[in-house]
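Title: Prediction job returns without error message
Component: structure pipeline
Severity: low
Priority: P3
Assignee: unassigned

Description:
Job completed but the reporter wants confirmation the result is attached to the right record. Sequence as submitted:
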Amino acid sequence: MEQAFEFIVNHFILVSVFIFLLVAFFVNEGKQGGAAISTSNLVTMVNRDDAKVIDVRDSKDFKAGHIAGATNIPFSAIDARMGELEPYKDKPIVLVCKMGQHSGSVGRKLKAGGFTNVRRLSGGMGEWSASNLPVVK
């Protein structure tokens, strides 16, 4: 551990550039899949903007509990079922997954398909449940 601190002190500029590039990478990756929104922002978007919630978890997880009005399109089937989302191309779409990991890659696919208003629920259904928000079973 002492050697790590010594390396950081001796190569401060190199370490600083590495940290900057690492942060820039994560920020860029996060934005490519759509901006992350909180649970309260999701509720507001659904109520005010008529946002479409797409749950990309497996059918089993979806049936165990999901956000009211959400449509289940599993992560593995998103390419085959992209056509189902065509009517929502001009509306806000919010992607929900288990913990917020798969929604970014689905968001990139949707943006490549011409969807412009794509968002991701930060923390996924884990955050939704932790906030004690209602789920439909």
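Comment from assignee: result matches the submitted record. The CA atoms of residues 95 and 120 lie 5 Å apart.
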